[in-house]
């Protein structure tokens, strides 16, 4: 199965690069499953129902979230109407929506998409490791699900690496989100799970993690904020990770970074481009 995961979509520039670029990638690379993190899609904070629909229409089979999941209050309501909008599974019991979704793939299979949040320098949520075990309970890779994608939304590289090893051999891909900067450590772990500490964001890199640089600079240098965070303008990059799985096991056969446009050095999955 051919899987593309795209990191946090930030604001209109991020949405535009996804809606304009993703449909072509779905056909050029014959993608079977696309997962997009949409936690910053609405002006940098949260997601609306209309934006969710646009990202789905561009080719995403599931949209994951994170600490900004419910910044747009309407998400608390419309998430219940969707079948493929996934918020962190370790939120408290009673939180609207779901932390994992079983979705149909383009090649006639089924994939489980899980969103989990780390706790180091993050909100004190339930244990992400135990939450992952619950999400995978009864959904064995290669039997019940042809692929399992875990979006681990966390701040520290150490917690992300530990989580990758914790999932190794049980899922197709563990990919980090939240820090908005693509890392170079994409690889297949010893148990067969593809891993990348951070997918990077879909947005403008001429800013501070996707936000216009002026206000963050003001807060760092003067310690007094004078405005709101606004998404950075400028040409956006489309960033993520590409994985090809073994159809028999659901584990990874190939993994590559994807970085297209926005002034970043370009990266493409050579195994799909011949
Ligand atoms: Fe984010
Ligand atoms: Fe985040």
Q: Topology of this structure?
A:
Blueprint: E1 2-6, H1 11-28, E2 33-37, H2 49-57, E3 62-64, H3 75-78, E4 85-86, E5 100-104, E6 110-117, H4 128-136, E7 147-153, H5 157-167, E8 173-177, E9 187-188, E10 194-196, E11 203-204, H6 214-222, E12 236-245, E13 252-260
Parallel strand pairs: 1-2, 2-3, 3-4, 6-7, 7-8, 8-10
Antiparallel strand pairs: 1-12, 5-6, 9-10, 11-12, 12-13
Bound molecules: fe (ii) ion (2 copies).
One fe (ii) ion is lined by residues 39, 66-68, 153, 178.
Q: How would you explain this protein's 3D organization?
A:
This protein is α/β, with parallel strands linked by helices and 274 residues long. It has one domain (2-272): Purple Acid Phosphatase, chain A, domain 2 (4-Layer Sandwich), CATH 3.60.21. 22% of the residues lie in helices and 24% in strands. It contains six helices and 13 strands. It has helices at residues 11-28, 49-57, 75-78, 128-136, 157-167, 214-222, and strands at residues 2-6, 33-37, 62-64, 85-86, 100-104, 110-117, 147-153, 173-177, 187-188, 194-196, 203-204, 236-245, 252-260. Strands 1, 2, 3, 4, 11, 12 and 13 form a seven-stranded mixed sheet that branches. The protein has a six-stranded mixed sheet with strand order 5-6-7-8-10-9, with helices on one face. The protein is globular. The two termini are 17 Å apart. The model has no long low-confidence stretch (mean pLDDT 97). Residues 8, 39-40, 66, 178, 180 line the site of one fe (ii) ion.
């Amino acid at each position: 199965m051919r899987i593309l995961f795209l990191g946090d979509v930030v604001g209109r520039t991020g949405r535009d690069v996804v809606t304009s670029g993703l449909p072509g990638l779905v056909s050029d690379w014959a993608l079977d499953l696309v997962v997009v993190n949409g936690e910053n899609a609405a002006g940098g904070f949260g997601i609306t129902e209309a934006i969710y629909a646009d990202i789905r229409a561009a080719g995403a089979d599931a949209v994951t979230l994170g600490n900004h999941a419910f910044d747009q209050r309407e998400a608390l309501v419309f998430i219940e109407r969707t079948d493929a909008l996934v918020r962190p599974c370790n939120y408290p019991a009673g939180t609207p929506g779901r932390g994992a979704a079983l979705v149909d793939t383009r090649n006639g299979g089924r994939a489980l998409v899980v969103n989990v949040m780390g706790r180091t320098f993050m909100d004190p949520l339930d244990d992400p490791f135990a939450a992952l075990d619950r999400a995978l309970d009864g959904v064995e890779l290669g039997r019940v699900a042809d692929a399992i994608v875990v979006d681990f939304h966390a701040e520290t590289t150490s917690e992300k690496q530990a989580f990758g090893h914790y999932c190794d051999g049980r899922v197709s891909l563990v990919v980090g989100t939240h820090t908005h900067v693509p890392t170079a450590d994409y690889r297949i772990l010893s148990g067969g799970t593809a891993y990348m500490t951070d997918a990077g964001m879909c947005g403008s890199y001429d800013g501070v993690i996707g936000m216009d640089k002026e206000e963050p600079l003001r807060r760092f240098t003067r310690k007094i904020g004078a405005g709101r965070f606004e998404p950075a303008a400028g040409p956006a990059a489309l960033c993520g990770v590409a994985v090809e799985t073994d159809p028999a096991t659901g584990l990874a056969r190939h993994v590559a970074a994807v970085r297209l446009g926005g002034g970043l050095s370009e990266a493409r999955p050579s195994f799909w481009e011949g």
